Amino acid sequence: MGDERVKAEALQILGLFQALPRLVVFDLDYTLWPFYCECRSKRESPSLYRHAKGIMFALREKGIDMAIASRSPTPDIAKVFIDKLEIKSMFVAQEIFSSWTHKTEHFQKIQRKTGIPYKSMLFFDDEDRNIESISKMGVASVLVENGLNLDMFKLGLSNFATNVAASSTIYKKSSRARPHVVTKAKVPKACVLDAAGGGLGLYCGAGDAGVLHGKAHEGAPSMALPPPAPSAAAMLSPPVPSKERTLNPTRARGDEPDLLPPPPPPPPP
């Protein structure tokens, strides 16, 4: 199948999905080409898997960026092969270096260079340890077995769409709760404690202004002053007799003062 025919089919596959990645990242060895480049010589003429170039042409026509993430120990040979295959201009980033991080370092550098979030990336690789590591970063990842082809390409786009749908569902669920909004309410007319000016005082008023010690006071704190509670001693002590005058019920209003005559003095001993 020629590159143009593969490109046409890849474009049809892309048209099946509404959610598309902004960046597609490829491994090199046994993903784009069928060999380990460290086992080859720079003088050789490399070749890609037969669907690889057509798929990359389709991505470029669709405006989707591409990058390389390879742990090859011979980046010089890999870059020579990329030049010979005339695909260098297709990639916005080429991270080719040996690493024990299972390509997390590669993706961190790619993300810094492109500014594209991990959730907007799609990754193809032939090693499951790389797939597992990069998937934990939020990247939709596909394990290829016989190199990149149209079937793997469609599977990757399907996985990406599933990731996007799952992220959207999580966001919708988390956004259902109404946010707690604190509004400033008017302070009811009441007496409140005032701690301004280095001392305590009584403040009576409404809203943001009131009277403190008989003077206008702006911005009084709105701590309501509760009525004083009776002390324990007051609750236990007997009531004190009232000092009010005792009225004489036999006298009419307007007569002599409404006072009963004082009691006679006690007899002398």
Automatic annotation (TrEMBL):
<dbReference type="GO" id="GO:0003993">
    <property type="term" value="F:acid phosphatase activity"/>
</dbReference>
<protein>
    <recommendedName>
        <fullName>Magnesium-dependent phosphatase-1</fullName>
    </recommendedName>
</protein>
<dbReference type="InterPro" id="IPR010033">
    <property type="entry name" value="HAD_SF_ppase_IIIC"/>
</dbReference>
<dbReference type="InterPro" id="IPR010036">
    <property type="entry name" value="MDP_1_eu_arc"/>
</dbReference>
<feature type="compositionally biased region" description="Basic and acidic residues">
    <location>
        <begin position="242"/>
        <end position="256"/>
    </location>
</feature>
<feature type="region of interest" description="Disordered">
    <location>
        <begin position="222"/>
        <end position="269"/>
    </location>
</feature>
<dbReference type="Pfam" id="PF12689">
    <property type="entry name" value="Acid_PPase"/>
</dbReference>
<feature type="compositionally biased region" description="Pro residues">
    <location>
        <begin position="259"/>
        <end position="269"/>
    </location>
</feature>
<dbReference type="InterPro" id="IPR023214">
    <property type="entry name" value="HAD_sf"/>
</dbReference>
<dbReference type="InterPro" id="IPR035679">
    <property type="entry name" value="MDP-1_euk"/>
</dbReference>
<dbReference type="InterPro" id="IPR036412">
    <property type="entry name" value="HAD-like_sf"/>
</dbReference>
